[in-house]
């Protein structure tokens, strides 16, 4: 008994698949922690004694008229406070770099804008923490020392922050 040969089908042409763009990964907005309560130092020096111990005796805290808008005053921060502020700024810097990466990968506009909003929120939180510390230390110390000009400085600062 002889078998009949099987029917051979015509070869089917296969189209090359269309190039598919890889999906853009969108990072979730980083939630920013509220600033921790500032602990009072164990020993609080009077402003005059503090200024003298820091070699700033005679410094009235006047606001110089600088064209750059800076007061050219300085603030000595504790190691912990400095570390906390720097960590916040580094986190914000990382978020900004993430946005740059999103733009390099042609991320969708709304995804980029959401990340920009997250950066703005982080910067606002940083500003609130810094302002809170400024009020508790610099402003309070100046008022205790009888330097009421610090109030004018604070009013100007708040006007600039609320633009």
Compute the CA-based radius of gyration: 30 Å
SS summary, helix count? 4
The average pLDDT score comes to 75
Q: Name the structural class.
A: mainly alpha
- Uncertain ranges: 38-42, 53-66
Run of helices and strands? HHHH
The biggest sheet amounts to: none
Distance between the termini: 98 Å
**Anisotropy-based shape:** elongated
Tell me the fraction of residues in β-strands, as a range. under 5%
Q: How many individual β-strands? A: 0
Q: Share of helix among residues?
A: 40-55%
Written description of the protein model:
The protein has 163 residues and is an all-alpha fold. 50% of the residues lie in helices and 0% in strands. It has four helices and no strands. Helix 2 runs antiparallel to helix 3. The longest helix is centred in the C-terminal third of the chain and has 36 residues, at 109-144. It is elongated and about 115 Å long. It starts with 46 loop residues before the first helix and ends with a helix. The model is unreliable at 38-42 and 53-66 (pLDDT under 50).
């Amino acid at each position: 008994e002889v078998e009949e040969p099987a029917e051979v089908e015509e070869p089917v042409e296969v189209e090359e698949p269309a190039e598919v763009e890889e999906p853009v990964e969108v990072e979730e907005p980083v939630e920013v922690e509220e600033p921790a309560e500032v602990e009072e130092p164990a020993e609080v020096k009077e402003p005059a004694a503090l200024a003298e111990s820091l070699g700033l005796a005679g410094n009235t805290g006047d606001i110089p008229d600088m064209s750059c808008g800076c007061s050219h005053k300085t603030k000595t921060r504790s190691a912990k406070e400095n570390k906390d502020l720097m960590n916040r700024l580094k986190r914000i810097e990382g978020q900004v770099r993430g946005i740059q990466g999103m733009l390099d990968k042609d991320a969708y506009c709304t995804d980029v804008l959401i990340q920009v909003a997250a950066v703005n929120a982080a910067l606002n939180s940083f500003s609130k923490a810094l302002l809170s510390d400024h009020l508790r230390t610099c402003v309070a110390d100046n008022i205790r020392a009888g330097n009421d000009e610090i109030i004018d400085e604070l009013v100007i600062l708040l006007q600039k922050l609320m633009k």
